[in-house]
Amino acid sequence: MDLPITRPSMMCYADELVMADLLNDLSLKKHNGFIRITSGDEEGFILFKEGKEIAASYLRYSRVDAIEKIKAAMEDETTLIEIFNVRSNQIDFYMDMNKPYIIGSEAYILIDELKKPIEINEPEPVPMPKAVPKPKPVSEALKESEHISKTITDTDKQNPLSKHEDDPVSNPPKLSNDIKTSSEENKVVPNHDHASETETKHDKEVPKIQSQEPLVEKNPVDEPVPEKASENVNKEPELKEYKVKVSSTEKKVPGEINSTPKSPENDTETKENTEAPLDRSELMKKYGIKDIQEEDVSNILESYKGGSVSDEDVEKIELTLMNKIKKSLLGIPKIRGAEVMVFLDNNNGLTGKVNIMIESETKGFLSKIMRDSNDDNLERQIVDISQIEIRKSFRKYPEIVDKFNVNVEIS
Amino acid sequence: MTRVITVASGKGGVGKTTITANLGVALATYGEETIVLDADVAMANLELILGMEGKSVTLHDVLSGAAVIEDAIYEGPGGVKVVPAGISLEGLRKIKMDRLESALEVLVENADILLIDAPAGLEKDALAAIAAAQEMILVTTPEVPSISDALKTKIIANKLGVDIIGVVINREQHDKTFLTVTEIETILEVQVIAVIPDDPEVSRAAAFGEPLIIKNPKSPTSNAIMQLGADLIGEEYQPIEPDKKGVISKLVEGLLGRR
Question: Which pLDDT band holds residue A102 (cuts at 50, 70, 90)?
């Protein structure tokens, strides 16, 4: 799809969020924009208008096929998901540009399926009976959070983020009511820690910026909601629920939405960032980039034959092959004794030489002088057995047998 | 001694082939005997960028054992030698990347610099292209997915014992929405050796099947690639300034018949 790629308002890997949560949340937020799903070299998009999915593409696939592909891509934990905001008045323009991808009713069945898991997860918080009165949290949460912030910490009284940060520590049941899935609370903590670290760094100014961040994030550019902040507090927890997981990227969002009056503050924030020395781990966190694990590296390299065999391996392979071939050869009744030598060369790809000396059963004088056809058959049999053993030893690369030279000497 | 340099990116579509093609031409114009090898046998594009499509013998044929590498070397624009991958998908199954090594041995004997355009991703063919080289140039755009993939490629290249010359940031825009040079250097832990601006001239040149540094040597992209080529071989490069005459003065000159 032709869509404007700017700085994403949020990004994370597929293993860091539940697709159903994301879709439901975007629908709650009445999101105008799109999400980009990147899995390896493959890219997919879902365009949203007022929170409703209106178009989808994945590589050359469109509509239902694209949704199916995206669904499959989400199963790969390395898939990157980015959310981009678009002004509501531009959505129709992008719809026009991407008419071939506009989804029909059949796609919504699939989308509904995608959204279902969150309904299944909902029963989890049910065991928390204390969290019955839903209207209460508005006033209570505010009061309590004020109280908590006074008693526990001396920072961020107004910061809605900090309220959530404090709540899980001091009053878990109430928070679990606000935030539907309890499992996510665990993930919330480290990100808040990160947020709090930055807060301490920036002293007085930063808390102000952060207190506004959630509002900017939740409301797409076109929705001038900041004044309704107090009303929105009720709805905030649900929205923050998964955003909090990617707190590092959240800070980028205000910078992008410059049309809101918060932009000057955001500018100062970005200036601070550029002036400060860059810490790699913080940057990686901020952009949701992960270092490849050692295990993954070795898996990738295993798929490639070159470089995967070390000199130590060569000796082991030689010994193993020798024993295997010898054992197999001694199974032939005509053979009384066998000596096998394997020489491998790992300089330019793995190649090998197998020398086999066979002592066959006693023959008559004539047959000793004249090499008979039985010897040829035996030699062929020995070569075949050796090649089978080589193939069995290199199951993933059976074609390597072509690089082995087998010499047989029968006495 | 011949330098074997692979141009890799991890993510596809970052402009790796365009940079390889133009860098090859740039090095050739400096007098270096340069061969550009398109190792992307599944998605060959190099020949399209250099206007060399439809060659009878390609790397496809070499890797499938139907031809020898010497027959797949063609003279390209600016004196660069090119080994096209071959766009046909026929015979793709017959290809054995193992044969690439022996093909490279021949190419190395005939060049000062061998540039390999590696396929995207980290599949066997991409790894073969990376492992075949002593040095690597990492191409990325200033976007998160492409930097993430470049990081993976860099780690794998290090494991394979390949020296990374540096990072080339392609399609740079003066826009705060993208990662900065410093951020990219910090994340990849590799020095940025060239920043190539986003330039519509690149697609225009590709449409004409002509390398940009020949079609439009004054463009910022051409200058950046020429500079990169010069840096690679320790040459001096004086950027070609674009015409500063205004549209009106050009029009007046045209009307007066002066050129």
Answer: confident
For an interface test with B, which of A9, A289, A302 has the most B Cβ atoms less than 10 Å from its Cβ?
A: A289
Partners of residue A284 in chain B, C-beta under 8 Å = 187
Distance between CA atoms of residues A251 and A249, nearest Å: 5
Q: How many CB atoms lie within 10 A of CB B102?
A: 13
Q: Which tokens in the block code for residue B129?
A: 């292209």
Q: What pLDDT digit, counting tens, does each position of A342-364 carry?
A: 888 876 667 888 999 888 776 66
Q: Which residues of A touch B152 (CB under 8 A)?
A: 292
Is the pLDDT higher at B178 or at B175? Answer: B178
**Which tokens is A160 given?**
């809605």
Q: Is residue A5 within 8 angstroms of chain B, CB to CB?
A: yes
Residues of B in contact with A280 (CB under 8 A): 186-187, 189
Place of tokens 């070299």: A41
Residues in B 115-134 with any Cβ partner in A closer than 8 A: 120-124, 127-128, 131
Residue A308: pLDDT band with limits 50, 70, 90? very low
User: Is B180 an interface residue toward A (CB < 8 Å)?
Assistant: yes
Sheet architecture: strand order including B81-83: B74-75, B81-83, B34-38, B113-117, B3-8, B135-140, B163-172, B192-197
DSSP category for residue A278: P
pTM of the full predicted structure?
Answer: 0.48
User: What SS3 state is found at A287?
Assistant: helix
Max CA distance (Å), chain B: 64
Q: Residue A372, CB half-sphere, CA atoms under 13 Å: how many?
A: 9
Give the residue from chain B lying closest to A9, CA to CA.
B177
**Cβ atoms of B44 and B38 closer than 8 Å:** yes
d(CA B1, CA B21): 22
Per-residue pLDDT, A128: 43
Question: Residue A70: what pLDDT?
Answer: 87
User: What is the pLDDT at residue A377?
Assistant: 82
Give how far B162 is from chain A: nearest CA, Å.
12
CA distance B249 to B172: 31
